[in-house]
Design goal:
The complex is a heterodimer of chains A (about 525) and B (about 270). In chain A, helix 9 packs parallel to helix 10 and helix 16 crosses helix 18. Helix content of chain A is about 45%, strand content about 10%. With about 270 residues, chain B is α/β, with parallel strands linked by helices. Chain B contains 14 helices and eight strands. In chain B, helix 13 links the parallel strand 7 and strand 8. In chain B, helix 4 crosses helix 5, helix 5 packs antiparallel against helix 6 and helix 12 crosses helix 13. The chains are: A alpha/beta (about 525), B alpha/beta (about 270). Chains A and B meet through helix 1, helix 15, helix 17, helix 18 and helix 19 of A and helix 1, helix 2, strand 2, helix 3 and helix 4 of B. The complex binds iron/sulfur cluster (SF4). The site of iron/sulfur cluster has 14 residues of chain A, from helix 14.
Chain lengths: ~525, ~270
Amino acid sequence: MTTFLGMPALPAFGSGNLFAGESFPTAAHRELGNAQLRANLGHATHTIRDKRQAVVAELPDWEQLRDAGSAIKQAVMARLPELLEEFETNFTARGGVIHWARDAREANEIVAGLVRDTGETEVVKIKSMATQEIGLNEYLEEQGIGAFETDLAELIVQLDHDKPSHILVPAIHKNRTEIRDIFLREMPGADPALTDDPSVLAMAAREHLRRKFLTAKVAVSGANFALADSGTLAVVESEGNGRMCLTLPETLITVMGIEKLLPTWQDLEVFMQLLPRSSTGERMNPYTSLWTGVTEGDGPQNVHLVLLDNGRSAALADEMGRSALHCIRCSACMNVCPVYERTGGHAYGSTYPGPIGAILSPLLTGIEAEENNSLPYASSLCGACYDACPVKINIPDILVHLRSVDVDSKRGKKKVPSQMDVGMKAASWALSSGKRLGLVEKGLPLGRLAAGPDRKITKLPGIAAGWTQSRDIPAPPAQSFRDWWAKEHRNAGGAPGTPGTPEAGPSRTPSPDTKETPQ
Amino acid sequence: MRIALFATCIVDAMYPATAKATVRILERLGHEVVFPSGQACCGQMHVNSGYLKEAVPVIANHVAAFDTADYDVAVAPSGSCVASVKHQHPMVARACGDAALEARATAVGTKTYELSELLVDVLGVTDAGAQLGSYFPHRVTYHPSCHGMRLLRLGDRQSRLLRTVQGIDLAELPEQDQCCGFGGTFSMKNADVSSAMLQDKAANIESTGAELCTGGDASCLMHIGGGLSRQGSSTTTLHLAEILASTMEEPASVIGEVRVSTGKALR
Ligand code: SF4
């Protein structure tokens, strides 16, 4: 069955594991209380980002590579429908079967149906963000089909009935002792004398997985790239377990977001340099598997691809936000993000955590989805993510854009404006004229009074209470700069200026105001 | 040269000494400083909080105050406000479909410099001690603010200037390129995360044994200083401009009570 859904006139938003169950500040508050998590995360993100920095610095043309990656992705987004058709033609011509899925539900049903057709009740899986996004494992379980993750970190998370918290290192929040305990508890046939030595743990997982690989008839994978000109799919990985899934079973079902296309083989060259260095901090990843349809007598003989929309067309329709679809899921942005480093991935709710998650999830689900409208605020806009992103997604600008969409979508809907609305309106009035700001500043001595004898303001009411939760505010000065300037200027013989008119300063050097205290 | 000072709202209202120091530095180099009095704020808080509609009059006011004034270049002692003027003003004008405002905002942005950028790139200051008489006999550590570092690409301009201040004992801040956690309304909307970031920044500052932490953004310094103060730390913050303006004859005041009676530790 190959039906091209095309671009619906009104693109549907995505469903599945894209929603936060609670607001980011609430989730962050809880996660921040977990000292072990913070320690594990801080250590892991620092290690990966130092490694990344070192291998990126080796390349003299890194910035040009980023530009090239960004340009290719822009070109892909500009003609995505035709590239998808080109890919479909080539993939089908080589014996593959394409299925189009509008959302998570459709994709899950398609995969379950394909597994059912084989008569099997077990599948092995290679780590895939797309299947995480649609909640495939849970759905298959409901249908009586067991899905076994084979990526080591993904296996750990699955055995622990936990959720991944990082897109590259799903078990980043666990240390090795915790992992040993999970194996002992959940892995059938685990040696009771298991230690927490990483190599011992890896061997235990290896034995466990071997049994699965040798019996599995069906595999499910994701794909990092799809090449339109040949109908080829690509998976990039570190352990080789993915390659086992891609070559041993009889049936291979790949689930891939429609944005993963690249026009030609040549374009892959750019991304094979950008991806490993950005994600694992390696010059080259150990295993890159490429497959094009069916090869008689070699590898899977039934090859399926589920092309997933799940809100991607909707994101594509957002002119400011669409470059979020350029993402190659390298995780560099989360490894440098100071917010992610402290809260971990679970605080973001969705399959996609960190800076990219803060823009991608609301773009896929629509910012009106209440579960996700706190995500664009989960950033101090420090810009570290934009600097790190190998395809130069301007995450800070998209965050600001999504905030404005959120604010606008609420305008007029609320009966009573929020404190923030009122404050922003008042500030806009006061800050859009020098005269008005000057008037407001006449109130500074009042603030000085409020500060009291220790000259600190330690408690503010309402939304500003967040500030004084951990910071003091210095007592305001007795006189604003504006007032001082006007006075100096008058003393020097000039008239105080009118708004918009520059006032020349006194020609002498003013004496320092020794009354000012440090900030 | 005729230099227009954009004091920024926070410096104007809360840290006039920083603006006065900026004026002193520029006049010491023989330039004329003007203050377009219609100026108020760059509107960054509104833009970054998503209140674009409310940001427009603030931006329009800034553009009007500066594009009617007569000057060669404009300067602000704040990397993030300059980044807003250069980057956000045209962006917001474009988002609102106001092509005329976009063109005027771009023109103002092109003429606007962050203080260290102006000193190093335009006014040719390579040795603050020799050219400005900067003298500051204190142990200082330096935090490069995110917007200066990433949006303006100030590089080492600020620290280069600091290093040439006579008498200064400059201590390297560990993890200096990490955000301090301010982020405007982020510090209120995500107060817990912001506090956690601040806590780490404060610990790094304390580890240097510096008397003062300096930088080019009054808002970040207010946040960091406020956190240090709440922790009962004896370390305070002082804007880069005040260190550069400090001389043997007219030293910047760094003595003053800064300890807080509550002395509560950060959460
Ligand atoms: S947004 Fe950029 S840095 Fe973040 S995961 Fe995607 S490609 Fe990597």
